[in-house]
Design a protein that fits this description.
Layout (H helix, E strand, L loop, with lengths): L1 E9 L10 E10 L2 E10 L8 H7 L3 H4 L5 H12 L4 E3 L2 H14 L9 E3 H8 L7 H7 L12 H15 L13 E2 L6 E2 L2 H4 L9 H12 L6 H8 L2
């Protein structure tokens, strides 16, 4: 099962007021395991970045002015996302902005299934804070690198949070054996994706001894019936 954890940074809260997407970041997870396959892009919004937004994410127009336009990066983004479900914290905000940008470029809106981690967290922890920082604290996820909002860092934190929300931690991350994700201080393990074929637990000699023991139990033994049905 392939899913895409996604986050955006923007110049403001509403595209209808002329605000634009200035960063997109996405992480591929398969069966709740980050694969190390990522997408990240800064975008020239062709407008100023209000001070109130700059204080949130630290991205200003001086930094963004030489970055590519949305229309020049969108095909690569669409190829990365494909038709797989999109996971985001308040997913309607991120997908809404992206759809506005897509429509402006003459592209169709995203039709991917949307999974909102805010809604999942509210259902799981009613009446409690479900901000990304609050969920990181709840699940003991180190978010000290999150000095400001960053789509790159936030997708990596959200991937961890989503795995915890889905009670899939045992399938996921081993930070002692990890690889670096591009442009980020956070690392994800990929060894469990690469090495899923477990070695046999019994040697051939042990198998022979086990079969010999089963034969001593008689033909009507439950172990004999199981052994025969598995052949």
């Amino acid at each position: 099962m392939r899913q895409i954890v996604l986050d955006t940074e923007t110049t403001g809260l509403r595209p209808s007021e002329g605000h634009r997407v200035i960063e997109i970041a996405a992480i591929e997870i398969v069966d709740y395991l980050p694969t190390g396959n990522t997408y990240q892009q800064y975008i020239n919004p062709q407008r100023d970045v209000p001070e109130s937004s700059f204080k949130v994410h630290g991205l200003n127009y001086e930094f963004l002015k030489d970055k590519p336009l949305f229309e020049n990066v969108i095909n690569k983004f669409l190829e990365f996302v494909g038709n797989d479900p999109i996971i985001a914290h308040n997913v309607d905000f991120d997908v809404g902005f992206l759809n506005y940008e897509l429509n402006t470029c003459g592209k169709e809106s995203l039709k991917n299934e949307k999974i909102d981690t805010v809604a999942i967290a509210r259902e799981k922890f009613p009446g409690q804070s479900v901000s990304l920082d609050a969920l990181c604290k709840r699940f003991a996820i180190d978010n000290t690198q999150r000095e400001k909002h960053s789509a790159t860092v936030d997708t990596e934190l959200l991937a961890r949070v989503y795995i915890e929300l889905m009670d899939a931690r045992e399938l996921s991350l081993d930070l002692n054996n990890s690889v670096e994700v591009k442009n980020s201080p956070v690392t994800f393990n990929t060894e469990k994706i690469k090495n899923r074929n477990l070695p046999p637990r019994l040697s051939e000699k042990e198998k022979e001894l086990h079969q010999s023991f089963i034969q001593t139990l008689g033909k009507n033994s439950i172990w004999n019936k199981i052994s025969q049905s598995s052949e």
